[in-house]
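Dig into what follows:

_____
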Amino acid sequence: MPATVVVGTQWGDEGKGKFTDLLAGDMSMVVRYQGGHNAGHTLVVAGESFALQLVPSGVLYEHVTPVIGNGVVVDPRVLIAEMDMLESRGVSTERLRLSGNAHLILPYHQELDALYERHLGKNKLGTTKRGIGPAYADRSMRVGLRAQDLLDPRIFRKKLGAVLEHTNKVLTRVFNRLPVDADEIATEYLDVCAPRLTPHIADAVALVHSELDAGHNILMEGAQATFLDLDHGTYPFVTSSNPVAGGACTGAGIGPRDINRVIGIAKAYVTRVGSGPFPTELFDEVGDHLVEVGQEYGTNTGRRRRPGWLDAVMLRYAARVNSLSELAITKLDILDGLETVKVCVAYEAEGERHDQLPYHQSVLHKSTPVYEELPGWKTDLSEVTERSQLPAEAEDYLQFIEEQAGVPVGMVGVGPARRQVFNFNA
């Protein structure tokens, strides 16, 4: 049975966790395929809120095997803390599996992350300083440590010593910092972290393919989103991996023919965190409304997100690079109180109209939005359970999104709870 991929179509924070959790009910396995603990997602089940960073959303279902794939970078201490949190709230993590090929985030990655960001000054990228970028850089340089290295203390110490030979020179000579103690790290990670994680470390590729071969449904879950993709996002204001649907192949060890459904998650408006271009960004009372009513503050960092109107140019691009089969719209209810709503249908830069995303960053940075304005619905949508209950204005808004994106809208979210979802095209 082919796999389903859930991918964000904006700059993250679209509400992927909720829809992944909903879809997981029909899956035997949920695989996280990239990112690190810089991307949190919140699930609300029976009034209880679960803020997850690394553990896949499917952990809340007893029949689901949650898998952290090889494309993820993992801070063992954060993963263990998250497992402890779940266990303390009655959620078993016994079924959780961690790919032996997933790379580890170690203390010096976090220190380097903060130092590099500070060094950039006004050109800073707005990273979460969680060590994600430096860990992926070590992976590319082929000096990273992987989860499987926790199973072999000799190899762990050997690899750690080799990477610190270079890293400590950077810390001491470039940044005038103290060197990192290899023995201190080895002791903590081998004596404390390894015993906790060893039962969960596995050959994730073999696990995934055994489920596919058995005809079971698998859900592939990405972190961040299309416009934070290292190759296809608003570079350099991006993450260090590939959240796009194609990243599921490399980040979990499957081929394109194993995927038959790609669901793009889009918020009914747009937000982003950190620096970078944002053509539809709002600095007025409407923007404040979106932030306050939508509670647009980072799950991990608490940072206020930058708000803006829905951008159909972005959606068209996301539909292309992800081969979207459908859209899931979240937080439609946050627009309930507005007299009118706007959708960006094109950009204008230096007198030229752009219906597709400009490939050149200089053009994108100069772009201003071309809007279509639609009437608001001024109606509480939080109890809507089917399309027929929608006010005409809200239905028109969703149809307009479909027309602009060229992709049908499937599920629509009108609140944070599991039940606050309906199917637009049943």
